[in-house]
């Protein structure tokens, strides 16, 4: 029993070293043997020590508590053991098996809103209870059964045999992930690089396949196809949340990132499972040429080409010409990337690609 109490005290001394600040840091919760307990007075931190409401803790643990108003003393009876405390005194007495010993507390018991508070160390040392402190969630734990609450923004990601945790954000209903953390977990890179106009743009690079996703904030771009930004192309006004800097960290839409990387995505609670979709996929194309001196767009189905995803890349493919003929006409480069006088946007709802005149 003595070894057990020494162990409990050691745990307490290691876990309950608090900065000497008042309870103004925020509310402190109390968890006892499997459930949260609330009373008239919450636990609080005073002069570097955690104070807990004595009667609430004692009665929850099944102890008898008696208050003597005349001499302002408190008696606690617990399975043949009696503990006597006096307000504004650090000295307490423990009587067990006919033997009485003196205990000196480092903080005096105090009264707050007619409730007695005692140092948590006293509970651990003399009640024989396991005591701990969850600093992150500011919770005093007495007994067993405590499981820290899950941060709703914290998710586990499974992808290519790796499993890692990310802190997500939600903006206007769009789930965003920290792109640099994702890259680091995957062993990829996320760094600025010059685009075709020599502008420095952040680029996510899949080091295994060489696939690149450029982050233009209003859209992610892979193989010259934009994922996001379609609202701006249609309505001349952006409304989609594709990328946002929060707290100095760059977050991107998981939905648009998965589409750009051609991933299957499954969200189940706090777990996100990503899987490469390497099946060759064909996307119909629709052209939106400028009409009425640039005042409006037309909308016609492409009759000579389509977009194909194959071998980790999106390519523009001809229906009635060979790739060599397409290249000679300047409609694509030698890699069959979509180029020319159009901007290409993936419509995630319709699963098609729309091409808009650049003007």
TrEMBL record:
Keyword Transcription regulation part of the UniProt annotation: no
Boundaries of every Copper amine oxidase-like N-terminal domain copy: 32-142
UniProt cross-references to InterPro entries, sorted A to Z: Cu_amine_oxidase-like_N (IPR012854), Mao_N_sf (IPR036582)
Signal peptide (UniProt feature, chain positions): 1-24
Keywords, ordered alphabetically: Signal
Protein's UniProt keywords contain Signal: yes
Protein origin, superkingdom: Bacteria
Coiled coil ranges: none
Name by which UniProt lists this protein: Copper amine oxidase-like N-terminal domain-containing protein
Organism name: Aedoeadaptatus nemausensis
């Amino acid at each position: 029993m003595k070894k057990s109490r020494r162990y409990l005290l050691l745990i307490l001394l290691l876990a309950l070293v608090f900065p000497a600040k008042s309870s103004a840091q925020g509310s402190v919760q109390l968890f006892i043997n499997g459930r949260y307990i609330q009373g008239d007075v919450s636990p609080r931190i005073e002069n570097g020590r955690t104070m807990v409401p004595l009667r609430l803790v004692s009665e929850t643990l099944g102890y008898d508590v008696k208050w003597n108003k005349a001499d302002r003393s408190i008696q606690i009876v617990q399975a043949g053991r009696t503990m006597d405390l006096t307000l504004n005194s650090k000295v307490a007495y423990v009587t067990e098996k006919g033997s009485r010993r003196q205990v000196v507390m480092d903080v005096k018991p105090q009264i707050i809103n007619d409730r007695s508070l005692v140092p948590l160390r006293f509970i651990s040392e003399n009640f024989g209870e396991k005591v701990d402190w969850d600093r992150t969630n500011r919770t005093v734990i007495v007994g067993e059964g405590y499981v820290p609450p899950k941060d709703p923004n914290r998710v586990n990601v499974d992808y290519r045999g790796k499993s890692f945790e990310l802190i997500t954000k939600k903006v206007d209903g769009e789930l965003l992930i920290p792109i640099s953390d994702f890259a680091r977990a995957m062993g990829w890179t996320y760094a600025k690089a010059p685009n075709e106009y020599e502008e420095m743009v952040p680029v996510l690079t899949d080091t295994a396949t060489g696939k690149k996703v450029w982050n233009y904030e209003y859209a992610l771009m892979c193989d010259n196809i934009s994922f996001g930004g379609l609202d701006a192309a249609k309505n001349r006004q952006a409304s989609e949340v594709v990328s946002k800097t929060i707290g100095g960290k760059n977050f991107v839409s998981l939905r648009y990132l998965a589409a750009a990387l051609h991933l299957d995505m499954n969200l189940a609670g706090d777990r996100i499972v990503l899987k490469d979709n390497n099946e060759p996929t064909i996307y119909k194309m629709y052209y939106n040429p400028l009409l009425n001196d640039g005042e409006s767009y037309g909308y016609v189905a492409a009759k000579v080409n389509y977009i194909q995803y194959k071998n980790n890349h999106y390519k523009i493919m001809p229906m009635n010409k060979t790739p060599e003929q397409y290249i000679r006409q300047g409609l694509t480069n030698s890699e069959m990337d979509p180029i020319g006088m159009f901007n290409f946007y993936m419509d995630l709802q319709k699963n098609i690609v729309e091409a808009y005149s650049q003007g």
